Automatic annotation (TrEMBL):
Signal peptide: none annotated. It comes from Rhodococcus chondri. InterPro entries: Dabb, Dimeric_a/b-barrel. Residues 104-199 form the Stress-response A/B barrel domain. It holds the Pfam family Dabb. This is Dabb family protein. SMART domains: Dabb.
Length: 213
């Protein structure tokens, strides 16, 4: 399986009707792309460099995704589009807690400095994957290495989660001790262990179906 994420940034002058029309137009367009699952939704307040619209498509293979990526990116261009960030990556099976509600999908696009030693990258990845052990409101999660990057930043990783609700992300997750005492050091440029470069893309939206699977 292969996933494609796009984060669309709108012009500040775009009004509510322009935004709603864009979302509906893209939803119609992506239905023709052969994706097994499709998500096209406005982002929620609180994103950081996270755009105004979030698109997530689940394809049966990288080859199928490649055949439709040009069509996807053409559909995302519009009069209110300023720029698009995005990634493509092999979709490993996600980990999940069974029978828990999932109402919010979150993706964090990250660029790890390519000069960082492989063992440091692996420690960074392990620390991210420890977070669900401590944060119960993370219902599903997956960390992937990026094989295709879109936008001005060469993204290397995508860290995906589904949460019980928005309050869980903005509260328990962001304020949890494991976040600021274990994970943040990899992102803080003043910390010697920092491996992340450039501003991250922290984006999320409401969902009514499974995205991380």
């Amino acid at each position: 399986m292969y996933n494609v994420i796009r984060v669309v940034h709108f012009a500040e002058a775009a009004d509510a009707s322009d935004r709603a029309e864009y979302i509906e137009t893209v939803r119609i367009a992506v239905k023709e792309l052969g994706a097994l699952r499709q998500l096209v939704a406005p982002t929620l307040p609180g994103v950081i460099n996270g755009g105004d619209a979030l698109v997530h498509l689940h394809f049966p293979s990288a080859e199928v995704a490649a055949r439709h990526t040009v069509e996807l990116d053409a559909a995302l261009r519009g009069p209110i589009t300023v720029r698009v960030d995005g990634v493509g990556y092999p979709a490993r099976p996600a980990q999940a807690r069974l029978n828990e509600p999932r109402t919010l999908y979150r993706a964090l696009l990250i660029r790890v400095d390519p000069s960082v030693a492989a063992d440091a990258v692996e420690r960074f990845e392990r620390d991210l994957l420890k977070m669900p052990d401590y944060i119960s409101s993370i219902v599903a999660w997956r960390l992937s290495r990026v094989t295709d990057s879109v936008g001005s930043t060469e993204w290397t990783h995508v860290w995906e989660q589904e949460f019980t609700d928005r309050a869980a992300l903005m509260g328990q997750y962001l304020n949890h001790p494991v976040h600021w005492s274990v994970v943040d050091r990899w992102f803080d440029p003043e910390c010697p262990e920092s491996v992340v470069r450039d501003r991250v893309c922290h984006t999320f939206c409401t969902v009514d179906d499974i995205v991380v699977e």
